[in-house]
Specification:
Blueprint lengths: L2 H16 L17 H12 L2 H10 L8 H14 L1
């Protein structure tokens, strides 16, 4: 896995981990994004350059439905395994 993809995975992990702590006024979409996977996709589509999005999305592991900290750990582990 390229270093850029690993770096973007770590950024996605940070966003997923912080998602439940974010002010709901900070991001309007936070009201409707209720899973770690949706949060990861939101971070990727907002921050990762278009030409790298597919590779970053493919590198994501299957994430749990409700455990944001656990999902962040899984994403970090995927980046380390890279």
């Amino acid at each position: 896995m390229k270093d850029q993809i690993k770096a973007w995975l770590l950024k996605a992990a940070e966003g997923v981990e912080r998602w439940p702590l974010m002010s709901r006024d900070a991001i309007d979409r936070a009201r409707i994004i209720a899973t770690p996977t949706a949060a990861a996709v939101f971070v990727i589509t907002r921050q990762v350059p278009l030409d790298q999005r597919a590779a970053v999305a493919r590198a994501l592991p299957l994430l749990p439905a409700e455990d944001f900290p656990g999902a962040a750990q899984m994403i970090r582990a995927a980046a380390r395994r890279g």
